Amino acid sequence: MEKNCISCGLSFSFRKKFEKNWDEIKYCSKKCKKNKLEKSDKEIEAFILEFAKGLYPPKAIQARTISRTYFGVHWKKFHQRVLAAIRRLSHRNILMIHPYKKILKQDIFFEILKDEV
Ligand SMILES: [Zn+2]
């Protein structure tokens, strides 16, 4: 059994300690439970979609391009939040993460899914 954390977007597996309330578990860790999504996270998601929709023809986008464009010179500090936003959007089938490019260190490539454009 696997689930996707609603905060960081990473998947996590069933563990013994989740036995009693697995259906209600939404976060992968205490840290994620504490870091509840903020308005700014929703804004990052909106920016990602806007950016992706602005590309014609649609093409794969590197996550760090989003971070750099949105956060400017200090983008590295916020890059994990951008990655989390991309993962959340992919779980909602709004965009697709390219699996073959995942190996790139600290970065992912993704593409918006047609139906959402
Ligand atoms: Zn998490």
Task: Describe the structure in your own words.
The structure is a single chain. With 117 residues, this protein is α+β, with helices and mostly antiparallel strands. The chain folds into two domains: 36 residues, no CATH class; 81 residues, Arc Repressor Mutant, subunit A (Orthogonal Bundle). The protein contains four helices and five strands, in the order ββααβααββ. The strands form two sheets. It has a three-stranded antiparallel β-sheet. β1 and β2 form a beta hairpin. α2 crosses α4 and α3 crosses α4. The termini are far apart. The mean pLDDT is 89. Zinc ion (ZN) binds next to loops.
Bound heterogens, unique: zinc ion
| The named CATH superfamily of the largest domain | Winged helix-like DNA-binding domain superfamily/Winged helix DNA-binding domain
* Elements, N to C (H/E): EEHHEHHEE
What kind of sheet is the major sheet?
Answer: 3 strands, antiparallel
Fraction in beta strands: 5-15%
Low-confidence stretches: none
Biggest sheet, spatial arrangement of strands: 3-5-4
State the name of the first-level CATH class of the largest domain. Mainly Alpha
Termini Cα gap: 32 Å
Approximate shape: globular
Helix content: 25-40%
Task: Provide the domain count.
Answer: 2
DSSP E strands, number: 5
Mean of all residue-level pLDDT scores? 89
